[in-house]
Amino acid sequence: MKSKRHSKILELIGRYSIDTQEELLKRLKEEGLDVTQATVSRDIKELRLIKIQSPDGKYKYAAATRENEGDQVSFKLHAIFSESVRSIDYAMNTVVVKCYTGLANAACAALDKMHFNGLVGTIAGDDTIFVLMRSEELALQLTQDLAKMLNK
Known about the structure:
Blueprint: H1 2-15, H2 21-30, H3 37-46, E1 49-53, E2 59-63, H4 66-84, E3 85-91, E4 94-99, H5 104-113, E5 119-124, E6 128-133, H6 136-150
Antiparallel strand pairs: 1-2, 3-4, 4-6, 5-6
């Protein structure tokens, strides 16, 4: 019974955008499975379901895979960076990222994990990050890409 229920849960979250345990419980009952909220909660833990952001910006349950775990990490890095940064500018092949006080190290670590093309290295202080790029063109491109990420 449990494996049938688990299979049905995976099928349902693949077919529908299910974002709450209540909605999953309702869908299971519609499929003829009489389960309780506690059972659904245990199943979610056992299946290691995670919530991912869908293209429409809402969150939904998904089975954890290497692919969407990467998406989650990427999302978190972008969130850390965008919440820490105040402004971005460049001069020649150096990009300067101004952050809120105390957040430059976290933003710099996130930036390093994003692996931008042409990035030679970074250094962070308390509220400023210096990014050395291979060329002025790449510095301009990075500045534009980061500004898009920040919606600035």
